[in-house]
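ZP: hey, is the zinc ion complex queued? I don't see it on the tracker
AM: it wasn't, my bad. submitting now with these inputs:
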Amino acid sequence: MIKLLYFRKKILFLFILVVGFTAISKPGLAYVIHDDGWDGPGQNSWSMSYYFGTMTPDLAPVDVKSTLVSALSVWSSVVDITFTETISANQNNAIDFSFVTGNHGDGYPLNPGGALAHGFFPAPPNPETIGGDVHFNDNYLWEIGNSLGGSAFDLKWVAVHEIGHALGLNHSLNGSAVMFPTVSSSTVFSSLHADDIAGIQSIYATATASAAVPEPGTIVLFGIGIFLVFGYGCRRRKLSTK
Ligand SMILES: [Zn+2]
Ligand SMILES: [Zn+2]
């Protein structure tokens, strides 16, 4: 069983490299897709659920929930995906949000100094019900915006990034894209980059009534903040051992 799992991981990693090379080869675009998304091949509309699991003590639950809903709407403003809340955990075709520490049941612990968060790619290729789930590392301090400066991270930026994974996007090479794998503690989410929009619209149908205006990459505050590499946690989120 363990050997089989290891083999599958290697296969999937190779798959990512192939897909990545194909996407990167498009001139001017740096986004990388991981798979066809929840809707399968082609750019289709989609509907799915989200669920609020364990909250963080850092923020009022009502503020966490509104921020996560806002992060979902960032993506649904540019692609035709409808998100509906469910009060039941562990549903198929659902993004379960939770704040966790250490080992939390999926085989990818979130420890102090580790990844800020991880999000599981869609099912398939991930199995249900872990596909799409997003886990925030509660060893870090969370904020909305940058009210706590360099000691905390903007929940909205990280949520938008992880939801991007949950919808099928891998990391972008564009340093101004929200799908870039690192973030500063002083960075605040403002809008998707044109590269993020091109990436998600290569997986799903474009939102019909969208008034979204891609803005050039906002000037990222590279100066002061601490950079954290999502890489390790994000690479591992591609396959659950659950
Ligand atoms: Zn997890
Ligand atoms: Zn990531």
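AM: back. The chain has one domain: 2-236.
ZP: great, adding it to the tracker
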